[in-house]
Amino acid sequence: MFLSIILARFRQWRRSRETVRQLSALSDRELLDIGISRYDIAQVARRGR
């Protein structure tokens, strides 16, 4: 059970990092089009939305 929690957290962290990477690659205009600012990227990635 403990190992499954660790693996789930690790997967969540990887998804978050991938989301940050992808959103960071967008231009400011593209980010504005989807309704977020560059400042919000980390928070959006953590929420998983």
TrEMBL record:
List the lineage, top down: Bacteria, Pseudomonadati, Pseudomonadota, Alphaproteobacteria, Hyphomicrobiales
Under InterPro entries, the record lists: YjiS-like (IPR009506)
User: What domain of life is recorded for the organism?
Assistant: Bacteria
Using the record's annotation, list all stretches that form the YjiS-like domain. 6-41
The protein depicted here goes by the name: DUF1127 domain-containing protein
